[in-house]
Design brief:
InterPro entries: GlcNAc_PI_deacetylase-related (IPR003737), LmbE-like_dom_sf (IPR024078). By secondary structure, the protein is α/β, with parallel strands linked by helices. It is 38% helix and 16% strand. The protein has ten helices and seven strands. It is globular, with a radius of gyration of 17 Å. Bound molecules: zinc ion (ZN).
Length: 272
Amino acid sequence: MTTPSTTPDLRGHTAVVLHAHPDDEAIFTGITMRRLADAGARVVLVCATDGDLGEALIPLRPHETLAGRRLLELERAGDILGVDRLVLLGFRDSGLPGWPQNHHPMALMRQPVGTLSRRVAEIIEAEQAEMILHYDWRGIYRHPDHVAVHRIGRQAARLAGVTSYEATVDRTHLTRLGDNAHLVHAAARSTDVPFGLFPSEITVTLRATYAELSAKLAAIVTHASQVTGEAVAHATFPDAYRFEWYQRIGPPTVLETLTEEGIAVGSAQVRP
Ligand SMILES: [Zn+2]
């Protein structure tokens, strides 16, 4: 492992990271959040739904709800990834396309984008953040809540006048690794769409150090109600998860002083 020779000092800088469900933050932006935090930046995680339609893979305690368990998991994962402040927008998981829960009045996909984007823009402004991380135009794999987060994040960035980094995955890279190398493969099968973007569409890529990939893995498996250890305990884990990819909308920010062009990092070789 190579450690960065000179890590930029990002104290005084803030990033808002907007996600749809507890666990998305670890799976799609865990390395980025950990790296920002390690550089001294303030990381504000905004989670739009409680993820209450996920299937519980472990028994819940008496009277415990899945949403309650997922909040605990989110808080623990946030600690691992260096989150300074967690904001819950309080909406319901909309479920997959065509599910009856799509029509619940509190489902995220039913909320007016204008209202929610103003709410997120107010968080950006109050925090004096200079960037927001959210999802690409497809919501990475077209989950209705992820598409909503894309629209809300894009408009909030415009209202607050900050750069948006739209998290995605490199479709070509992950396809080459096989059908189950990454959780996004199964997710995309559930919505029956191509996932992510092509390499030519990706503006910013971060590659994890060993420590960052270990933190990402720890954060992912902290979401034990959603992800089994077996789902990520495979030989391709490092190749599938050591990168995080973004399409930038707006001018570059200090985030890009943390990319491989900005600092030297070693290739990760973590094993689950
Ligand atoms: Zn999600």
